[in-house]
Write a structure and sequence with these properties.
Blueprint (H helix, E strand, L loop, with lengths): L2 E5 L3 E4 L6 H7 L18 E5 L7 H7 L8 E3 L9 E4 L4
Parallel strand pairs: 1-5
Antiparallel strand pairs: 1-2, 3-4, 3-5
């Protein structure tokens, strides 16, 4: 099972490959905004990620294209875990 590390808290959680980051984050009991309730239409759940994730689908790519700040951003409700990863949000 992949391990996800949350920064800056350093907290970790195990999750199954293919799980959405939103599900992993919520399962770990960490707060995250998701104004669209996980439907993939807003940017509230964007997080910085390093580590293997499935390639962004068309819906996630469209949202990522709206982010002016380049970087390892992913949309947590759409991004799917493929291996050990580090997820960062300023409020953890």
């Amino acid at each position: 099972m992949p391990t996800v590390t949350f920064l800056p808290s350093g907290r970790t959680a195990e999750a199954r490959a293919g799980a959405t980051l939103l599900g992993v984050i919520r399962g770990a009991g960490l707060p995250i905004g998701y104004a669209c309730r996980g439907r993939g239409v807003c940017l509230a759940c964007r997080v910085r990620v390093t580590g293997p994730l499935a390639a962004p689908d068309v819906a996630e790519r469209a949202l990522l294209d709206r982010i002016a700040d380049p970087g390892p951003w992913r949309i947590a409700c759409l991004a799917r875990l493929a291996g050990d990863a580090t997820v960062q949000a300023d409020y953890w």
